[in-house]
């Protein structure tokens, strides 16, 4: 990220709060965004780079609207199909991943109005998401200017307890709940299994789930792509352990 862009974005955020409260200080701002005052001071003075993940953390802490999250970065996610926590956090809203799949449909149009209608998001969310995916090099353009995905599969470890990953999973669970009411049963399959288990088999069960998801991905993506789906498999405890009583 260019230092002048970082300075401008941070300075504007700080300036807006000073306008409403002339006594507002850098230290108070640092407490609000849970970042060291020294770190913010060094960024504002151009002595330290504002990373995309830190900018996202600040934006999240301030609950900024999408149009206030306009910051640039030279950080990319295209080096591996296994996303880092920083990369996942930058793309934590579910529609980032939906867009990377939507572009695979034959009917896809790079029209923010069309994308917004297809995914049930705003046109601004569509524009910011595509700009972000391009900056992170998750998407790129071919010689004709058409969007393409730089990696066919994007994943991160489900063992990482990061806020961005939790945010994404919560959004997906909400979408599943909405689908129970809004999607015809012929177009969905939401089911569950409640069983008493041997916890010593959990590690092997997780490996089987990963293999199952890969097999389902290969099955469902064969042939022409016509629609974007989400497949979720949930395994979690309903009862406490004996030492939690």
Regarding quaternary structure, what we see is single chain
Strand fraction: under 5%
CATH level 3 topology of the domain at 3-68: 434 Repressor (Amino-terminal Domain)
Annotation field: number of helices: 10
- What is the level 1 CATH name of the domain at 3-68? Mainly Alpha
Helix content: 40-55%
Could you walk me through the main structural features you see in this protein, from its secondary elements to its overall organization?
The chain has 245 residues and is an all-alpha fold. The protein has a domain at 3-68: 434 Repressor (Amino-terminal Domain) (Orthogonal Bundle), CATH 1.10.260.40. It is built from 10 helices and 2 strands, in the order ααααααααββαα. The protein has helices spanning 3-20, 26-33, 37-44, 52-61, 85-90, 94-102, 112-119, 123-135, 163-182, 202-220; strands spanning 139-141, 147-149. The protein has a two-stranded antiparallel ribbon. α6 crosses α8 (123-135) and α7 packs across α8 (123-135). The longest helix has 20 residues, at 163-182. The protein starts with a helix and ends in a 25-residue tail after the last helix.
Topology:
Layout: H1 3-20, H2 26-33, H3 37-44, H4 52-61, H5 85-90, H6 94-102, H7 112-119, H8 123-135, E1 139-141, E2 147-149, H9 163-182, H10 202-220
Antiparallel strand pairs: 1-2
Short description:
This protein is mainly α and 245 residues long. The chain contains ten helices and two strands, in the order ααααααααββαα.
């Amino acid at each position: 990220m260019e230092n002048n862009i970082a300075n401008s974005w941070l300075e504007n955020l700080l300036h807006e709060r000073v306008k409403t409260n002339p006594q507002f200080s850098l230290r108070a701002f640092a407490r609000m965004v849970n970042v060291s005052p020294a770190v913010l001071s060094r960024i504002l003075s151009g002595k330290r780079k504002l990373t995309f993940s830190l900018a996202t953390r600040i934006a999240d802490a301030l609950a900024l609207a999408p149009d206030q999250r306009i910051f640039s970065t030279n950080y990319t996610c295209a080096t591996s199909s296994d996303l880092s926590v920083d990369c996942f956090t930058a793309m934590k809203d579910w529609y980032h991943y939906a867009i990377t799949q939507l572009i695979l449909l034959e009917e896809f149009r790079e029209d923010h109005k069309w994308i917004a209608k297809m995914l049930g998001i705003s046109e601004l969310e569509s524009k910011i998401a595509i700009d972000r995916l391009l900056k992170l090099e998750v998407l790129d353009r071919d010689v004709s200017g058409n969007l393409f995905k730089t990696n066919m599969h994007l994943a991160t470890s489900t063992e990482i307890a990061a806020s961005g990953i939790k945010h994404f999973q919560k959004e997906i669970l909400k979408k599943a709940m909405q689908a129970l009411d809004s999607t015809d049963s012929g177009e969905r399959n939401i089911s569950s299994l409640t069983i008493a288990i041997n916890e010593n088999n959990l590690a092997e069960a997780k490996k089987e789930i990963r293999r199952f998801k890969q097999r389902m991905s290969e099955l469902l993506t064969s042939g022409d792509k016509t629609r974007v789906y989400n497949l979720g498999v949930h395994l979690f405890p309903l009862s406490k352990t004996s030492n939690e009583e």
